[in-house]
Amino acid sequence: MSLTARDVMKRYATPAGPVDALAGVSIDVEDGECVALVGESGSGKTTLLRCFNRLVEPDSGAVSVDNADVRQVNEVELRRHIGYVMQEGGLMPHWTIRRNVALVPRLIGIPNADALVTEAMGLVGFTDASFSSRYPRQLSGGQRQRVAMARALAARPTVLLLDEPFGALDAITRTDLQEMFMAVRKQRPVTCVLVTHDLFEAQRLADRIAVMRAGAIEHIGEPREVIGSPATAYVARLVEKAGLHRLDRHA
Amino acid sequence: MKVALALALAGVALQDAPRARPIVVASKPFGESYILCEMFAQLLEARGFRVDRRAGLGQTEIAFAALRTSSIDVYPEYTGTGLVAILGDTTRRAPAQAFAHVATEFRRQFGAVWLPPLGFENTYAISVRRETATRFALRTLTDLARVAPSLHGGFTADFIGRNDGLPGLTRSYGLRFRDVRPLLAAVKYQALASGDVDVIDGYSTDGLIARYDLVVLADDRAFFPPYQAAALVSPSLARDYPRAIVALAELSGRIDDTMMRGLNRRLEVDAASVAIIARTALDSLGLISASRATTGVDTSRGRRASAWDSFMHAIVDDRDALARRTWRHLLLSAASLLAAAVVAIPFGVMLERRRRLAEPLVRATGLLQTIPGIALLAFMIPLLGIGIVPALVALFVYSLYPIVRNTYSGVRDADPVAVNAAHALGMTPGQVLRLVRLPLAAPTIMAGVRTAGVINVGTATLAAFIGAGGLGEPIVTGLALSDTGMILSGAVPAAVLALLVDIVLAACERAVRPKGL
Predict the structure, then answer these.
(1) Cβ of A92 and B421 within 8 Å?
(2) pLDDT value at position B190?
(3) Rounded to 5 degrees, what are φ and ψ at A191?
(4) Are the C-beta atoms of residues B80 and B121 closer than 8 Å to each other?
């Protein structure tokens, strides 16, 4: 399923005056593609991500999923068919792991929810059934993010939105989960938008990278292109700060 | 002939008795009022009426509000109190004029009837220890005003607030004490005797004035109005039970100052029981049969012994009464708490959706909490009368705040990340509330119910002031009669009950806590 944003604007009122979180952004994500939105805090990347499942309603412009304007779709229905992973996991603390993963299939009312749950758990590497009856509190941070990923995938959505999914993890766990993510994408060709502040992670996981700054896309292209020939001085500085310019030279 | 007589008797009986609702006889919470209340009650019983005793109604406002609305039928009141505290009239009058004035005004304004005075006056007796009187050469209130700035006053709350009490006395004599402490009637004599305070507001008929050898200062400017005691009768009793009025009027003019002081002394000094004092008094006046008075089996038990004995008596021998009061107390608390939870939990949940309104409304609920218990009860008497209903409403009102507050903040602050995720994954607002916010808030909500429950059990002791019974009953009576054992026989079970309620509700709190938390 493809995703499109056209001239999307979003303005927030802050104590310091109005701030343009999105200043007329356009982007196309192809079916099955993974696009990373990269930028510093306040660049508008999370706001753009949230426009796709209507957690944010743009002031102007159009957002569509699979060529259908999202405003024409009931927001609850829309969200149930778009997987979502957030940085802090957001697991229901009072539900077992299995119940958490079953959340969306049960909301939709899919009959074989149980099989879907088992499948999703397998995708993220939980084959040990003993995990099922545990509670989120009893899991490590990395395990919780795996569960969050399984939960987002359980209803077999064709679109996955990821908001800094590995941002709160230590370096080793983050690498593990990145590998898990790549493995998942091989089995499930799902359209992804990945928000990250880590350019290294972006070039590793995404088909294309969109560098955002002050509510606009500064440069969008394949990782090799963004890193090899940054469109602006800002992008170049970002590449340099991530230490990727050297990596590219060695490659 | 016999048949005719029987028919005639039946006819007389038909006038009052067949309607046969019990006559509610009440008193204010101090010893003399209890004795007179009991004398009214026994006299009415001896004349064939059924009587319901509601002794110890908390102070003038509550007792009179209850009488006005015919929630009670009769209680002993004093003309000066009627004049100043109820009518707000401070004009100086001779005793006969004062009585005529209250009698006319009460009938006109409230439909209530003052029966002819009982025959004694019980005025305020501003009293000091004998050594204080000697040291400062005190005889009159004018003398007292001279040295008052170096003395500590200790007065009942009623007296401190009333126009015919301290405020008026201050205006009239220029009395200014070094400080003034509010005291319960039950402890004021001990406080004076032990030197904690130097001046108290005694009652001229109190038995303890003589016992502690106190000096009563003369009201040389005639500030206090006359305080003639009389039976004050409700509009409905006056209208529907003329024979009861006749029976009560048998006491008019029969109790003089000496007799009343004697009865009070038997209660306060000899610690005799109210029932026996009343019975012997009626007997000595020839108003009830001597045989009934003397064959009282429990005359030997008439003397109250030590606090411990009186406590043990209430707990062990009177365990049926204890069980009844505890049960009543528990029902009052449980019913009002349940009703409060049923109202406050949905209300708190609703506030979460209207956050702009939430804080002001939660605060408004909190304001209800700050209304003093007695005041809230007094407000409700005109609407709901006395007894169980106003008590339930008051306890309900007091239980709202902790539950509303905890429900609102519990639901509002439920794990924000989980709530965000729930929205993002496609839960409807209703599902977010039902599946996420409420289960996560459950322990907090239950903690609010628990707080309300414990407060409620404590507050329910006040219910006795408006005749709703419960464990407050022996506390109120014990305070009025200075019977520590009796006070404890209410206070200890109430404390135990509060503890048990806390334990049970704590278990409920654990039970509703979701497993993963």
Answers:
(1) yes
(2) 87
(3) -75, 130
(4) no
Strands A216-221 and A208-213: antiparallel
**How far does CA A49 lie from the centroid of its chain?**
7
Cβ–Cβ under 8 Å, residues B454 and B337: no
Contact yes or no for B418 and A91 at CB 8 A: yes
User: Which tokens hold the place of A131?
Assistant: 């995990």
What are the structure tokens assigned to A46, written together?
A: 């999370």
DSSP code, position B315: I
- Tokens read off for B260: 């009343």
Q: Does the pLDDT value for residue B299 go beyond 80?
A: no
- In sequence order, the β-bridge partners of residue B154 are B181, B200
**Residue numbers in B near A95 (CB within 8 A):** 516
- 């002939």: which residue's tokens? B1
- Closest Cα in chain A, distance from residue B414 (Å): 10
Question: Which residues of chain B are within 8 Å of residue A90 when distances are taken between CB atoms?
Answer: 417-418, 420-422, 424
**Residue A219 to residues A243, B478, B504, Cα–Cα distance (Å):** 18, 86, 64
Helix (H) or strand (E) holding A28: strand A17-29
Categorize the per-residue pLDDT at B319 as very low, low, confident or very high, splitting at 50, 70 and 90. Answer: confident
| pLDDT for position B399 | 93
**What CA–CA distance (Å, rounded) separates A194 from A45?**
9
Residue B513 tokens read as 């806590």
d(CA A185, CA A194): 13
Using the Cβ of B441 and the Cβ atoms of chain A, whether some distance falls under 8 Å is answered with no
Question: Cα separation of B263 and B97, whole Å?
Answer: 28
* DSSP letter string, B35-58: HHHHHHHHHHHHTT--EEEETT-S
Residue B185 is encoded by which pair of tokens? 């009637």
pTM of structure = 0.76
Alpha-carbon span B337 to B457, nearest angstrom = 10
Return the number of other C-beta atoms located less than 10 Å from residue B9's C-beta: 10
Sequence-distant contacts of B64-68: CB under 8 A, at least 24 apart: B64/B232, B65/B378, B65/B381, B65/B382, B66/B26, B66/B381, B66/B385, B66/B386, B66/B466, B66/B467, B67/B26, B67/B112, B67/B232, B67/B233, B67/B234, B68/B110, B68/B112, B68/B234, B68/B235, B68/B382
pLDDT band, very low/low/confident/very high, at B11 (cuts 50, 70, 90): very low
Residue type, B135: R
Q: How far is CA A182 from CA A189, B94, B175, in A?
A: 10, 104, 91
B418, B424, B431 member nearest A93 (Cβ): B418
What is the distance between the alpha carbons of residues A97 and A113, in angstroms, rounded to a whole number? 14
- The SS3 of residue B183 is strand
Q: How far apart, in whole angstroms, are the C-alpha atoms of residue B176 and residue B152? A: 10
Pick from B420, B426, B435: CB nearest A90: B420
Least Cα distance to B483 among B493, B473, B470 occurs for B473
DSSP assignment, residue A166? T
Say how far apart CA B276 and CA B262 lie, in whole Å. Answer: 13
Return the closest-CA partner of residue B409 out of B369, B355, B368.
B355
Any CB–CB contact under 8 A between A89 and chain B? yes
Query: What is the predicted ipTM?
Result: 0.91
In chain B, residues with a C-beta closer than 8 Å to the C-beta of A107 are 425-427, 431
| Tokens coding B154 | 């200790």
Phi, psi at B160, each rounded to 5°: -65, -30
